Amino acid sequence: MDSKASTTTAPLLNQQNRINPPSKPKQKDFLNHLEAYLAKRDGVDKLLKISRYATKIVLASSALPETLPLTQRLKSFESSVGISRKAFRLGKFVQDVNALRSSKSKLDSNQELVLALIAYGGEGLYFFVEQFVWLVKSGLIDKKHSRNLQKISAWAEFIGYAGSISLKFRDLSRISEDERCVKSSIEIAIMRGNGCEEEKEKLTKVCEKKMMKRLSVVQDSADALMALADIRDGGGPFLGPLSISLAGMLSALISTHKNWVSC
Predict the structure, then answer these.
(1) Which residue, among 194, 196, 244, has the nearest Cα to 221 in the 3D structure?
(2) Half-sphere exposure (CA, 13 Å, Cβ side) for 156?
(3) The predicted structure's pLDDT at residue 37
(4) I need a labelling partner for 12 at 20 to 30 A (CA). Which of 25, 113, 130, 223 fits?
(5) CA distance 250 to 225
């Protein structure tokens, strides 16, 4: 019976396919597809970042004598991890191109558009130049270009974080306004004796979003401090090796937490 049913329905299906041919699967946007592929390396990059700055903290604290063989090994390890991280971020500037493309429809004003250009443009330029810094450190490009490339990279990173922090403070203002509205709805519901479980659940999500955004501001501030240290070659208050290493560890831990929560 099954074979008979299949033989009778087959011509009908063929006829329907001729009239309405099956649609082809929608082709993915190349840049979005490339970003998704590159993003898979973020977890490894963050673990490398933690190990690198943990090593830098040990070295900057002078806990180990310079003459100790372990000290030299830690310096070599820290340098190798730094180069490895640059290799892991090859092509990462694509995510900033995509972020800028997708943010145009979400921005409320020209001022926010300018901030987005500064944030994503600065970070994108930083990741792009870092590819050449990696080529210098790996020996493919002459080391005479190293200082200029690192300065361009540091300035681009610093400017990008300045724009990013400004945008996130605007986001925090909107989230705080949403939080006040939800709290007001809960108070009204309680006064009327109505249930407000849905509003309470919404408030929890808003508070979590607010906390994550605050952590992002702290992370960006720590990264901006490190970029400033690169610009000033470590000179200035709060730009010493230990302070910068602690800032790097703070940024790494926050970034790892955010990635872990989003998985």
Answers:
(1) 244
(2) 19
(3) 62
(4) 25
(5) 12
